[in-house]
Amino acid sequence: MRKLKTIEMHRMTVSDFKQSDKMPLIVMLDDVRSLHNVGSVFRSGDAFRIEAVWLCGITATPPMPEIHKTALGAEDSVDWRYFDNATDAVDELHAMGYQVCAVEQCEGSTMLQDFVPDIGKHKGFAVIMGNEVKGVHQEVVDKSDCCLEIPQFGTKHSLNVSVTAGMVIWEFAKRLML
């Protein structure tokens, strides 16, 4: 086997990306502190052509060198919006016809591998990733349609926000794009 050169990968341009069909998924970051996590979510979002990243509360917005360091320019390709308050963003998502899923360990949560997005019932989907320490705020969980949980089998009870986002985006891509 031979590794492909970048030119052999035939990547689309930012302009082509902007005009392309997107997976009907918005990733919302609720008070995410690390700019590197924010950049990583943009990069994963670009890889799977998500619709947008919504940034809420203390979550930093582009342009920022620390976001760019991990996003590698994906902050330019993936659409984004900022909201002072995550609950306002959830209200807008509902008004748009999206199913909103907090990614959190909750009573009655659905394991990620068991979630089946009903594309006929919803215009699209939104997943909410929470703060690195406190997770998704309870008032945001309360407004969500469901909670998705990633099963874990070790001694820790959480994953890094950007790792979680990548896993969740991939699961949606398997169901909505492949």
From TrEMBL:
What InterPro entries does the entry give?
Answer: Alpha/beta_knot_MTases, rRNA_MeTrfase_TrmH, SpoU_MeTrfase, tRNA_m1G_MTases_N
Which residue ranges run through the membrane?
none
UniProt superkingdom: Bacteria
Q: What would be one Gene Ontology cellular-component term for the protein?
A: cytosol
Q: Which UniProt keywords apply?
A: Methyltransferase, Transferase
Keyword 4Fe-4S included in the entry's annotation: no
Give the tRNA/rRNA methyltransferase SpoU type domain ranges.
25-169
Instruction: Read off the CDD domains from this record.
Output: SpoU-like
Pfam families associated with the record: SpoU_methylase
Q: Name one GO molecular function term.
A: RNA binding
Presence of keyword Phosphoprotein: no
A GO biological-process term: RNA processing
Query: Any idea what this protein is called?
Result: RNA methyltransferase
Whose protein is this, by species? Prevotella pectinovora
